[in-house]
Design a protein that fits this description.
Blueprint: H1 2-32, E1 36-40, E2 49-52, E3 56-58, E4 61-74, E5 83-90, E6 101-106, E7 109-115, E8 121-127, E9 137-142, E10 146-147, E11 155-156, E12 158-167, H2 183-197, H3 202-222, H4 224-250, H5 252-264, H6 266-281, H7 289-303, H8 346-367, H9 379-408, H10 410-423, H11 426-431, H12 438-454, H13 461-477, H14 486-499, H15 504-540, H16 559-564, H17 570-573, H18 575-590, H19 594-610, H20 630-647, H21 649-671, H22 679-682, H23 687-692, H24 702-706, H25 710-720, H26 724-753
Antiparallel strand pairs: 1-12, 2-4, 3-4, 4-9, 4-12, 5-8, 5-12, 6-7, 6-9, 10-11
Length: 766
């Protein structure tokens, strides 16, 4: 009787699994078997067009210009029937220009070629059913280019306004005509597998999987296009979650032991993660704000002054992009006769020893016949100062890990540290734009927060002095970091209130101790900030100034944009940072009172950034100014992962892994220009368009992204054209970077091990 019941139960399970798959396939077929698909070029077209310039608008509506070649993606539509492709476009040539010949390729074959009129017209092309692949049509366009008569004298091919694909006689004839892409089929199955892997019963897993399909079907009635576009993204993310949870369940006897072993080797793991990132992503650069940061160092080293007329000269634009040449005009000079510089002086101080190494390398290269200048602008200088910024990220990782390790243990501390490094903007600004101040500023803030938390409640004169030095220098690296000085101010306020609760006999001595500590802190902070004050005095004639006046506009407070906007908002670009912000509420609750001050300090910094006129930070990756808040995000992520680990260990892994994967895909899109870079174009995207674009997980373009970095490009060039000089240069940098990474890691480990103490029972940092 029992065996019969078991067989019946197994049959019922298989039947319900089959029913779930069939329901998903029916939903996919219903969504994808459409009689037509349209792309409004210049409208909501992210992921559907390639090889086109930025969106433009005119009397006819929105459009894009294509250069010589471009690609259109249309679909999915119902398969098995003839297709009609309609293209509304124009050559855009002046009337006296000859009409160019447009070549249209579908499925790798030229389907037609015809002359393209100057004005907007609609062209129709009949295509056979086999032109579709998985229900989609890929159209390649090629046309001869012309040069614009008016500035900016672009090279243009054609103007595209709209593309539409129609299925001829496209009636619903049942799902048997086509095999749909199994998007929601995978969503339903993955959710069921995820619930089972997390310990749910088969019945609960099946019900939730079926419920997800039912919800998608209901939403389809109101938002069919939105549900269709979201399917592939939801399928990939839910499948990743399910496979991760399933693998952890299968390896449950072992993976926790492996996690403990990794925690014991955390220092080496962090060194390995950093060095792999350096090898795969390090891209020395100098542009935009980086030129202003570098100008302090280059001008002092080469010219012996702080006059930046030659550092901001228009001639420099031949070698570097976004040179602030407008600042070098004489009418823009300061009252003291100097060229303005809106950057902080701190990065130049950190870079200076590496600049010296770069100078020695440039001299050695010239002696060997390499065409390097010794004026501060050749590659060795840029590579070495970029590496120093990257190296500061290693210090950030090791300090941040040691902080969360003391609070939550080595395994979770390692997971939180690696995830926050890869899942926030620090990775990008450490390796891809190291000439900006953000990696260095993040290191300064991390050191400051580390010292503040570590000595909470037991701060003596030496600790106040060191904290002041750290606070002053983090402000020298990036002025707005001064907002984080709220932390010692809050601590001092709490101490003062506590003193007034003491007996009168002890009150005077306690107040004297606090005043002494405060004076030591202020004096040390002023000492560390003095290089910036001296630079301001020379350039602006004042020790304290605000070089960028009117930069913050409280009337334009935009916190929701910082969180949700496709223009670098935290949620679409770096969702782990949002989880870190949520986690800080748990930290504030569990680690009182200092956790409350950490939450308030981040809220203050976030709020200030929301008042900036250019809160998005321009055309770079993510909210670059929030890179400085890395240790705050790290503490929040660690607190949240600990909360999830108490429920189930696999949840903490999922909460770290999925946001990191998403941010990695956003970075890949950014590096390969599958995402626009210009703020004006990003701001026109809807959140749904950003999240569910068909090219939002372009793993096939990873080799293309890797080739932008220094070491992969060096290997490629050696394979193409082996040259002894290039081989020697790359090896010198490789050994130099590797040796300095190990040296910094060893020195910092010695220092941290000297400060190791057990965490107290109340969880107060030891």
């Amino acid at each position: 009787m029992g065996r019969k019941r078991d067989r019946t139960g197994r049959r019922w399970r298989w039947a319900t699994i089959l029913a779930l798959f069939l329901a998903g396939l029916l939903l996919d077929a219903w969504l994808q078997a459409r009689p037509g698909a349209e792309v409004d070029v210049g409208g909501r077209d992210l992921g559907y067009v390639e090889g086109f310039s930025a969106k433009e608008a005119g009397a006819e509506g929105t459009y894009r210009w294509m250069e010589g070649r471009g690609t259109l993606h249309l679909g999915p539509v119902q398969a098995g029937r003839p297709l009609l492709l309609r293209l509304r476009m124009a050559s855009g040539r002046p009337p006296d220009f000859p009409w160019p010949q447009l070549q249209v390729e579908v499925d790798g074959r030229t389907r037609t070629s015809f002359p393209l009129a100057p004005g907007l017209s609609e062209y129709a092309l009949l295509l056979p059913p086999e032109s579709l692949h998985n229900g989609e049509l890929v159209v390649e366009l090629a046309v001869e280019t012309f040069r614009e008569v008016e500035p900016p004298n672009r090279s243009l091919g054609l103007l595209m306004d709209r593309a539409r694909l129609e299925v001829l006689d496209g009636r619903w004839d049942g799902v048997g005509w086509t095999v749909p892409r199994p998007a929601y089929t995978l969503v339903g199955a993955a959710i069921a597998l995820l619930i089972w892997a997390l310990g749910g019963t088969f019945g609960v897993a099946w019900v939730l999987g079926a419920s997800s399909l039912a919800l998608a079907a209901l939403l389809t009635l109101a938002f069919p296009q939105n549900v269709l576009q979201a399917g592939p993204t939801l399928a990939v993310l839910s499948l990743l979650a399910a496979l991760t949870a399933g693998l952890l369940r299968l390896l449950s006897p072992h993976w926790k032991a492996w996690a403990r072993r990794l925690g014991e080797k955390a220092h080496g793991v962090l060194l390995l993660v950093f060095f792999l990132g350096l090898l795969l992503a390090f891209t020395p650069s100098l542009a935009a704000d980086g030129i202003q940061y570098y100008a302090y160092l280059r001008s002092l080293a080469m010219d012996g002054d702080l006059h930046f007329a030659n550092e901001f000269s228009p001639e420099l634009a031949a070698h570097f992009s976004h040179v602030p040449s407008g600042l070098s005009r004489r009418e823009a000079w300061t009252e003291t006769g100097y060229v303005k510089n809106f950057a902080s002086v701190g990065p130049a101080i950190v870079w200076s020893p590496f600049f010296g190494l770069g100078h020695l390398l440039a001299l050695g290269g010239r002696a060997l016949g390499w065409p390097w200048t010794t004026d501060g602008y050749s590659e060795p200088y840029i590579a070495l100062i970029g590496f120093s910024s990257a190296l500061s990220a290693l210090v950030t990782l090791l300090l941040g890990y040691d902080l969360v390790r003391r609070l939550y243990g080595p395994s979770l501390g390692l997971l939180a540290t690696v995830a926050t490094f890869l899942g926030t903007t620090l990775f990008y600004y450490a390796f891809y734009e190291p000439d900006f101040a953000h990696a260095l500023a993040s290191c300064g803030v991390t050191l400051f927060l580390y010292l503040w938390v570590r000595h909470w409640g037991k701060r003596g004169p030496a600790q106040w002095f060191c904290l002041g030095l750290a606070g002053g220098f983090m402000t020298t690296l990036y002025w707005v970091n001064a907002l984080f000085l709220l932390l010692p101010a809050g601590e001092m306020l709490g101490e003062v209130l506590q003193v007034f609760r003491e007996p009168a006999a002890r009150r005077r001595r306690s107040l004297a101790r606090l005043v002494g500590g405060g004076l030591l802190f202020a004096g040390a902070a002023l000492l560390a900030f003095s290089p910036q004050m001296i630079a301001w005095k020379i350039i602006f004639g004042r020790f304290l100034t605000q070089p960028q006046e009117g930069f913050a506009t409280p009337a334009g407070f935009a916190p929701l944009q910082l969180l949700f906007s496709p223009l670098h908002g935290l949620l679409p670009w770096t969702p782990l940072a949002v989880l870190g912000m949520v986690g800080l509420f748990f930290l504030a609750r569990e680690r009182r009172p200092w956790g409350i001050w950490v939450l308030l300090a981040l809220a203050l910094y976030f709020g200030y950034n929301a008042t900036l006129e250019s809160w998005h930070g321009g055309g770079t990756f993510g909210l670059r100014r929030l890179t400085n808040a890395f240790p705050f995000f790290l503490l929040g992520v660690a607190a949240l992962l600990e909360r999830l680990r108490r429920r189930q260990a696999a949840l903490s892994v999922l909460a770290a892994w999925l946001p990191v994967f998403w941010s990695g895909m956003v970075l890949l899109r950014f590096l390969t220009y599958a995402l626009p870079h210009h703020p004006a174009e990003l701001s026109q995207l809807s959140l749904e368009e950003f999240l569910f674009a068909p090219t939002n997980m372009p793993l096939e373009r990873l080799p293309e992204a890797l080739q932008t970095a220094f070491f992969p490009r060096w290997i490629r060039d050696l394979a193409t054209l082996p040259r002894p000089a290039s081989l020697l240069y790359g090896l010198v940098l490789l050994f130099l970077f590797g040796g300095m990474t190990l040296l910094v890691g060893w020195l910092l480990r010695r220092w941290l091990e000297g400060k190791k103490r057990p965490t107290s029972a109340k969880g107060r940092p030891a």
